[in-house]
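Summary for the steering committee. One of the milestones for this cycle was to obtain a three-dimensional model of the protein with pyridoxal-5'-phosphate bound, which we needed before selecting residues for the alanine scan. The sequence and ligand used are listed below.
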Amino acid sequence: MSNLNVEQIRKDFPILQRKIGGKQLVYLDNAATSQKPRSVIDALTGYYEGYNANIHRGIHTLAEEATDAYESVRDTVREFIDAEHSHEIIFTRNSTEAINLVAYSWGNANILPGDEIVLTAMEHHSNLIPWQRLATERNAKLVFIPITECGQLDMEEARKLISSKTKIVAVTLMSNVLGTINPVKELAKLAHEKGAVILVDGAQGVPHVKTSVRDLDVDFLVFSMHKMLGPTGVGILYGKTELLEAMPPFQSGGHMITSVWRDKATWTELPWKFEAGTSNIADVIASGKAIEYLTALGMDNVREHEIEITKYALKKLNELGDITIFGPKDATLRGGVISFNVDAIHAHDIGQICADAAIAVRAGHHCCQPLMRDLNVMGTARASFYIYNTKDEVDLLFEALKEADKVLGHVACR
Ligand SMILES: Cc1ncc(COP(=O)(O)O)c(C=O)c1O
């Protein structure tokens, strides 16, 4: 048994009381976005009702309160990922924007024709397309670390593919399809030995696995607050000071300058150089509450709970004879994301049957079309767990799949 008091946690999430078609909601779509606790929701209304003002620019009380609340979250994030300086934390819209920032700003300044950008075969489109565009524009080459049959990165190949031609390794901490947790510390070492930098896509990993940028020694880390109890509209980019300082701004306009003339301008210091325009103030402030919530639970306990529930779900789902589950079999090697197909039933039909039972799962390519091709499937169904999910909910999923198999599986086979 993990140390999380799930029954108590569930009371903090108003939406979990919701019924759909008279049935209790079972929310198993956490890899897409997580639900939000009362403290996060209250922080949003608290800002708008109590101290709504634009930040950094005003000297009146509301502006000071809003600025203090917004800037204090930078330090909350710094502590959460164990970064050295709070100016290394940049607020973006989401992980996608953070990756685009690095691909545009760092990429255009550093990638030359013939250089190699190393990715993996399990990247989300967000950590693929920005690099595709950069490679095309700079005449560079994309190189992909393949996946073994067990759904893990082929590290033997990685050692060969990361070479003196490599300029950046961009890799997900945890696959949103396979659940695989990747050895980013080892990849960072390999990249650094060759003089390359590493960007880690933590969109799935950071909400579930205690992450220290200093221990992993990664150069860039990105993640999205909406997948870890926070509101939508806030992404985090962590970057090492010397890299961020050398990078030109991504977007330009108000707030990221020191002096402006008609024909030129100078940029302000970190982190504001990368935060042009009015920031997403309310959502950043509420994001701080999300991190406080996770910190109070303890990320080790979060991870332990997920291993427990994933282990149970893997065992239970495997009782359905004609199911294919993708990714590592060992729950300790993966996060709480389980992609699967039930023979002869289209993933969307599984999604629909689950929806009819008030169970939210996802079906499709999960923004990983190249990986779907490698797996030789059009798509998969995906159940993903978080701190408030229970074994009883896994049982309900199992019953819905059994029903789908009974109704649709046999029809499809006939
Ligand atoms: C692994 C991974 N990377 C990146 C993203 C993109 O996150 P966002 O849509 O918040 O930018 C996702 C979203 O599902 C993801 O799973």
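Key point for the committee: The chain has a mean pLDDT of 96.
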